[in-house]
Amino acid sequence: MVRGKIQMKRIENATSRQVTFSKRRNGLLKKAYELSVLCDAEVAVIVFSQNGRLYEFSSSDMQKTINQYHKHAKGVQTNTTEVEQCIQQLKHESADMAKKIEILEASERRLLGHDLDSCSAQELNQISTQLDRSLRIVRERKAQLFVEQIERLKAKGRLLLEENVKLHTECGARPFQKPLIQKKGVGATSYNWMNSSQSSSSQTISKSDQVETRLFIGPPVMHSE
Questions:
Q1: Which of 58, 156, 163, 206 has most Cβ atoms within 10 angstroms of its Cβ?
Q2: Which residues in the chain belong to E strands, given as ranges?
Q3: Distance CA 169, CA 161 (A)
Q4: 0.90 exceeded by the pTM?
Q5: pLDDT for 101-152, tens place per residue?
Q6: Per-residue confidence at 218, pLDDT binned at 50, 70, 90?
């Protein structure tokens, strides 16, 4: 015979309710005992009947199990309180950070020349002073970068000159020299070795054979030297 499904609601008949309580209580205590033995678990069960009668089962000392439960519950409650306090603190920090960001964004807009209608004369003076100070810092940094770049270029130039002298020494040639420039004075002229070399080369070209550029139709004519 198949048992019907029992509805989960209060049993109205007192006798049936007492019989069901006794059966299920014994079954619950039996299951608790089996759980403690099979799984080596610490199990404690406390049941009060409708009349206030106590039924209990404990795999070890009941009071020890209850104390352990209170200790664990207190720790969980403490952790929950700490988590809530941490959450509240993070909310306050987030709100403060949002206010600071809003103030910084408003200051940035004013520095860019926006939203100046609501500024007083004192605030505008402060903005002007801040811009002047920022501009001065930027110019100083820019000048410093230029000086550092010039020093690097000078150092690179010295290294190149030293390398040039070294290569000329190894090849047995005359090292590269800067053009010699005479200062202008009374009856004196300025010249350099590049001008002298150019003049000498032009004289050599003038002494060479000249090329005939006239248009001539017919067989080629051989010129004798």
A1: 58
A2: 44-48, 54-58
A3: 12
A4: no
A5: 988 888 888 888 887 888 888 888 888 888 898 899 999 999 999 999 999 9
A6: low
Crossing angle between the packed helical segments 62-111 and 121-171, to the nearest 10 degrees: 90
Q: DSSP secondary-structure letter at 55? A: E
- Residue 59 CA, distance from chain mean position: 57
On whether the CB atoms of residues 54 and 46 are closer than 8 A, the answer is yes
CA atoms within 13 A on the CB side of 218: 4
Of 115, 108, 106, the C-alpha closest to 131 is 108
Between CA 137 and CA 104 the distance in angstroms is: 20
**158 phi, psi to nearest 5 deg:** -65, -40
Across 50-197, the runs of DSSP E, i.e. the strands, are 54-58
User: In the structure encoding, which two tokens stand for residue 71, read together?
Assistant: 């200790």
3-state secondary structure 111-144: HCCCCCCCCCHHHHHHHHHHHHHHHHHHHHHHHH
Give the Cα separation of 110 and 48 in Å (integer): 74
Distance from C-alpha of 127 to C-alpha of 115, rounded to nearest angstrom: 12
Torsion, Cα 214 218 219 220, to 10 degrees, reads 0
